[in-house]
UniProtKB/TrEMBL annotation:
Keywords: Cell membrane, Glycosyltransferase, Membrane, Transferase, Transmembrane, Transmembrane helix. Residues 68-229 form the Glycosyltransferase RgtA/B/C/D-like domain. InterPro entries: LipidA_mod_glycosyltrf_83 (IPR050297), RgtA/B/C-like (IPR038731). This is ArnT family glycosyltransferase. It comes from Rhodanobacter geophilus. It is a multi-pass membrane protein. It is found in: Cell membrane. GO terms for molecular function: glycosyltransferase activity. The chain crosses the membrane at residues 14-31, 95-113, 125-149, 169-196, 216-236, 271-293, 305-323, 329-349, 361-381, 401-418, 427-447.
Length: 574
């Protein structure tokens, strides 16, 4: 049992990075509403399960949803049961997951580098500084929770103070919870540190039979947890759902040419795509020379902690590069391993080459210069737009606010140009605050192009009034949660289906997603709102069917409600 002194030491070790990150994350995640289509899809599935009492099988738009396992939805439901249905609890959950990830990487660093106390303090600072990981953590998605289970499983493999053998049953439980979060991909995140255990663990090297034998049992425990849900869910969801759940939705992402009965979000990319995306994934450390010099000067013999990080990150990165389906957030757990490797390399550089480790030429000055240049661009942006030297969706929207944010990046640039002790912490604070500033700028300027509340509320009111709703194209659940819809939206792929829908539902509504507004929409539609670089238009079904067939519909009783792209109040077209 740890004494009160050791417990207080552990609490002090969380200061100040955990409270700082928590405050910034809460500010950022509640700056605007759920992001389409990431967060809105997840919330739609959770809402449909909740409203239709589908506790075993996830559903979206009236159909079983085989893309994901249900653990995140169950956690959302637990909060809704206590606090009521809203998007507040799911976002708080994401902040909790992100904080847990930081704590876990600190604990892993403490176990793997027992003689380097600095590692446990530095690792979470580096992880919270990653801009992409922070921004993606604002989405109500599965991957941050998956990263928590992956880090938890790897923590169970790492030797403790009193015990060198892994805690196998906890290792298996973490694998099982990861499988219940996002399916078999969980195994890829933890497989190689276990398989390559003798390369980094003295205990695994001297007890190979127990290491692999008990590891297999732990993996089987995790798979049993998945099957305990998947088999009953498969029978409940039907034969097609079971096949898609247990085979095709995973195989089609891994192997080129696997066909599925329904469209699948496979995200096919070339083999080198992750290599090309590394600057984005590793920003701001991509611009810190000391980090790359530290990695480049690593030499054998490597410490067990560094060998662990290499056994984790390198083979996992190669396998994910070879897998057909790729998204940046698939590598979220490995970003923690990369930061562990980076911190270890810097610690060794300080020990073995102190002069090189302390030279100002390897400091954060490239990032400081970049921040000052970005501040200058933001300051002159209104002049560039006003003088017709620069135009576009982003510059035009950002120009009214850009000079306020120029001051922020000017101060961050000056912070990064400072020299002396605390360089890593200054870089982390600058990266975190800079990312928060960019999120705030997006909220003030571009968020009205992503806010689906007007359309969702109109559709919700229409459904309550008994009107059927159709969607031209592929519907991805973006209106169900905000509109509190309880019936499926019918997907319409062509004019023939549109005409049949209008005939069957003469008082129904149809949502269209055109690139531009045309005069007919401004005359006959019910509502039009900007969405990203295009528009969403809600029509009376019979009106749109008449226009598509070449007929002239009757004049509407009132003009459409058109929302502006700058977030101003809605207006009626004259």
């Amino acid at each position: 049992m740890p004494n009160p002194y050791s417990r207080s030491e552990h609490l002090r070790s969380l200061w100040p990075w955990l409270p700082l990150w928590t405050v910034v994350a809460l500010l950022a995640i509640f700056a605007h509403g759920p992001m389409p289509l990431y967060s809105t899809r997840t919330l739609a599935v959770a809402w449909e399960m909740w409203s239709q009492h589908h506790w075993l099988v996830p559903y979206i738009n009236g159909q079983p949803y085989s893309e994901k396992a249900p653990l995140l939805f169950w956690l959302i439901h637990a909060g809704w049961f206590v606090f009521g249905v809203s998007d507040v609890w799911p976002r708080v959950l994401e902040v909790i997951f992100g904080g847990a990830e930081l704590v876990l990487i600190s604990l892993i660093a403490r176990r793997l580098f027992p003689n380097r106390a600095w590692m446990a303090k530095a690792a979470p600072w580096t992880l919270l500084a990653l801009s992409y990981a922070f921004l993606f953590g604002l989405q109500v998605m599965y991957d941050v929770l998956l990263a928590v289970w992956a880090l938890g499983a790897l923590l169970c493999l790492a030797p403790g103070v009193r015990r060198d053998e892994p805690r196998w049953w906890l290792f298996g439980l973490c694998i099982g919870f990861g499988l219940l979060t996002k399916g078999p991909v969980m195994l890829l995140h933890v497989l190689f540190p276990w398989l390559l255990g003798p390369l980094w663990s003295d205990w695994a090297r001297t007890h190979r039979a127990r290491w692999y034998g008990r590891g297999v049992l732990a993996v089987l425990l995790g798979l049993a947890m998945l099957l305990a849900w998947a088999l009953p869910a498969g029978f409940a969801g039907g034969e097609a759902y079971m096949h898609r759940l247990l085979f095709s939705q995973t195989a089609a992402r891994v192997i080129h040419g696997v066909q599925t009965a329904e469209p699948l979000q496979s995200h096919a990319r070339p083999v080198l795509w992750y290599v090309l995306m590394l600057p984005l994934l590793l920003f701001p450390f991509i611009g810190w020379p000391r980090a790359w010099v530290a990695l480049a000067t690593l030499r054998k013999p490597l410490e067990p902690g560094l060998r662990f990080a290499l056994c984790w990150v390198v083979p996992t990165f190669i396998v994910f590069s070879l897998v057909r389906g790729k998204q940046l957030y698939y590598l979220l757990p490995e970003l923690a391993g990369t930061m562990l490797l980076l911190c270890g390399a810097i610690a060794i550089l300080r020990e073995r080459r102190p002069q090189l480790a302390n030279t100002g030429w390897l400091g954060t000055w490239p990032l400081g210069v970049g921040s000052l240049a970005f501040a200058l661009l933001l300051f002159v942006l209104p002049n560039l737009v006003a003088g017709n030297h620069l135009h576009g969706e982003w510059p035009d929207a950002c120009a009214p606010y850009s000079r306020y944010f120029a001051v922020v990046f000017l101060l961050l640039g000056l912070l990064l140009l400072l020299r002396g002790r605390g360089e890593l912490r200054r870089l982390a604070v600058a990266g975190l605050v800079g990312t928060l500033a960019l999120n705030a700028l997006f909220t003030l300027t571009m968020w009205p192009r992503y806010e689906l509340r007007p359309t969702s509320q109109l559709l919700g009111a229409a459904e309550q009034a008994g009107h059927a709703i159709g969607y031209l194209g592929n519907y991805e659940g973006q209106f169900h949660f905000q509109g509190r819809l309880v019936r499926p939206i019918e997907e319409l792929s062509n004019n023939k289906q549109l005409a049949a829908f209008a005939q069957a539902h003469p008082d129904g509504l149809v949502v269209q997603h055109p690139q531009k507004l045309d005069p007919q929409a401004l005359r006959y539609a019910l509502l039009a709102q900007p969405f990203r670089s295009s528009w969403l238009v809600v029509w009376p079904a019979t009106t749109l069917a008449d226009l598509r067939s070449g007929a002239t519909p009757p004049e509407p009783m009132q003009p459409p409600q058109v929302y502006s792209t700058d977030g101003g109040p809605s207006r009626r077209q004259p």
